[in-house]
Write a structure and sequence with these properties.
358 residues; alpha+beta; nine-stranded mixed beta sheet; eight-stranded antiparallel beta sheet; 6 helices; DNase_II; signal; deoxyribonuclease II; EC 3.1.22.1
Length: 358
């Protein structure tokens, strides 16, 4: 055997462990299981006009590589869905008992548990290692299941529309995300922040352990940058900020009129508001790309877009335009990505201004 052949065999044997030890980086994932910088899911309600009763599990999908909504061929309760592919990273790691990752699940309505009004009206999942991870913000009560139960979707989440946004971040962004979560005061129902993360993510560990938290002010605005260099603004309000986040803060800070979509309960809905320089109008009806529509009363999602096309703001988050939610903590992540704006703006069928319906 030649010296070159011996070297090749040795090199191959040395490289084999690296091949088997390497795992893909933690990130948001599309339906093919491939990493994406961000994605947005709009789970459609069970009842839509011009259609027979649906499954309540169909969803539209948009990510950093697409330009408009696509109807998924999967259902949201399937592990092959974008949400399932993304969260399976956490579930698999949990089963392997690895200590090199951190995660947090929070929801004001926990799986198989009570509804909390004492903490933030917030729902989300963090999963990361010391390289990168994702922050998944959603509007689905009782979701996702505890890690030991594996991926699933609650039957209670079928009736109404729901939204979710997943963004992949490098590790250095999670200390700022932890600060935002201090303002949220989230109802954490499962988490693990190992001590190896405590120096950089001490606030996240305190939230996880339920220990004493540092004093916060009424609200906090921060800039976040995704792993793919996409810019986001994140608004986080505490329960000390007793006002409608849409009108009193977001519209005025973004300097744009907003069209707002949130669950509109007849007893608690806030009317469209023109009291400040930048107004907020309630969306009343959502149109879909395939010639059907639904009303806001059947939509549990929370999002808003700029009324003016040139401003191109889109925000997705936690809070409804409702009287009780003025006292609740929560927030929104906002983008000026033109594809995100175009996708959401196209859904507005009509809205209620302060004087008339459009």
């Amino acid at each position: 055997m030649t010296a070159g052949a011996v070297w090749f065999r040795l090199s191959f044997l040395i490289l084999i462990p690296d091949v088997f030890l390497w795992t893909p980086p933690i990130s948001c994932r599309n339906e093919a299981g491939e990493p994406v910088d961000w994605f947005i899911v709009y789970k459609l309600p069970k009842y839509k006009m011009n259609e027979s009763v649906g499954s309540g599990l169909d969803y539209m999908y948009l990510d950093s590589s697409s330009k408009n909504w696509e109807m998924s061929r999967h259902l949201i309760n399937m592990s092959q869905s974008a949400v399932g592919q993304t969260l399976e990273q956490l579930y698999k790691t949990y089963k392997s008992q690895e200590n090199s990752t951190a995660y947090m699940m929070y929801n004001d309505a926990i799986p198989s548990g009570n509804y909390s009004t004492r903490q933030g009206h917030t729902k989300g999942i963090l999963f990361l290692d010391k390289s990168q991870g994702f922050w998944f913000i959603h509007s689905i009560p009782r979701f996702p299941p505890f890690p030991e139960h594996g991926y699933g979707y609650p039957s209670t989440g079928r009736r109404n529309g729901q939204t979710a946004i997943c963004v992949t971040y490098m590790y250095d962004q999670f200390s700022e995300i932890a600060t935002q979560l201090l303002y949220y005061n989230p109802n954490v129902y499962n988490c693990s922040i190992p001590d190896t993360f405590s120096q950089a993510l001490s606030n996240l560990q305190k939230i996880c352990l339920g220990s004493s938290l540092p004093w916060i002010l009424v609200k906090h605005l921060t800039k976040l940058k995704s792993a793919g260099e996409e810019n986001f603004l994140h608004f986080a309000k505490s329960h000390f900020f007793i006002d409608d986040i849409y009108v009193a803060w977001m519209a005025q800070n973004l300097e744009t009129h907003l069209l707002a979509e949130s669950w509109q309960s007849a007893d608690h809905e806030l009317p469209s508001n023109c009291s400040l320089p930048h107004h907020v109008f309630n969306i009343k009806k959502i149109k879909l790309p395939f010639h059907s529509f639904f009303y806001s009363i059947n939509d549990h999602s929370k999002w808003c877009v700029s009324w003016k096309y040139e401003d191109q703001w889109t925000c997705i988050g936690d809070l409804n335009r409702a009287k009780q939610q003025a006292w609740r903590s929560g927030g929104f992540i906002c983008s000026q990505n033109p594809n995100i704006y175009k996708a959401f703006r196209s859904l507005v069928y009509y809205y209620k201004s302060c004087n008339s319906t459009h």
